[in-house]
Amino acid sequence: MNHRWQKIGQIYCPSGEKKWLQSHAAVPIADHVAGDVFKIYFSSRNEHNQSFTGYVVVDITQPDKILELSPNPVLPPGGLGEFDDSGAMATWLVSHNGVKFLYYIGWNLGVTVPFRNSIGLAVCKDGEPFNRYAKGPILDRSMLEPHFVASCCVIPGEDKWRMWYLSCTDWNVRNGKPEHRYHIKYAESPDGIHWKRDGFVSIDYENDNEYAISRPSVIRDKDCWRMWYSYRGASYRIGYAESHDGRQWRRLDTRVGIDVSLAGWDSEMIEYPFVFDHKELRYMLYNGNGYGKTGFGLAVLEQI
To answer: Is the pTM for the entire model greater than 0.90?
Structure first.
């Protein structure tokens, strides 16, 4: 079945309100507060291009009206020399047994290549501020994945926790500059902290021109698992896949039902989807031009 998303419009774009909020509102995440109110986490940048995690609060029925902007970052960069000293970019949020697990991308700047990523974890109990679970990452490059890992989606289950995550397979020099190549792999865990991965690829490259597949967003429906993600050749678009076990996926990008607009903030690219359900409707948060530089918007799945 083909999907069809109706765009509601741009929701938020930073205008330099704070030092840690000079530009970008990337990789949005919706966290239900009460009623129709949601806290939407996102990643911003300061004047030194370091990434911070903040939030806005909106009523989903009037999403263009910002009810609250976080006065301080929820998660700033880590300490000097740590895996996230150049940025802490939230990528997924899970509530489990009264604890919130905020998975985030830790950024390090490189020399031979521009950057290296790892996956970190911050936790929150009883409404207290988020605190790093550890000063080091919970998922990093390894013997079998020598480059880096990044954006992830995590879903706890009765039998195990599942993770779909970005895995860099290589760097290539294009037009005199190093260019990354990454797709989406699968991992499992008993607790959401300690992960077992065997290199299984869930979403692979469609062709040689495709070099970036990122930010998976997974929902388990009664009939199958569904995933939305970003994929890039010339520029980012949003893709779609289905699975019967959550591990092996079939790409169905032509059925995604959302594309760039003819003009405006999302006319050049769309990426980093976050799909969630609320009151029998399915919504999608996503970024537009400039990898979040023009902020994020909202779409709703039309009932067909």
So the answer is: yes
